[in-house]
Amino acid sequence: MKSDHRILRGPCLTEKANLLLEIDGKVVFKVDPNANKIEIKKAVEKMFDVKVKHVHTTNMHGKQKRVGSHTGFTNDWKKAYVTLSEGEINFADEL
pTM for this structure? Predict the structure, then answer.
């Protein structure tokens, strides 16, 4: 079984994520690409002591980057939208 710190790689702190947190109570995390929704839900509930209502995931494809004459891609990653039913996560207090 994976540890909770390996499943949740960190918060996704963007403007869209902040709006979702304020309006719908959704928190956005960068997660392990091999993690499923059940593992993500258990990890969030255990680490932040909140109740999770739903988990939606999406696979993000790496962007094409160029350095000089060489082109390549950044790594693919997975994003999880976690809807909270009880409790609140404030990343300013956690950092």
Answer: 0.86
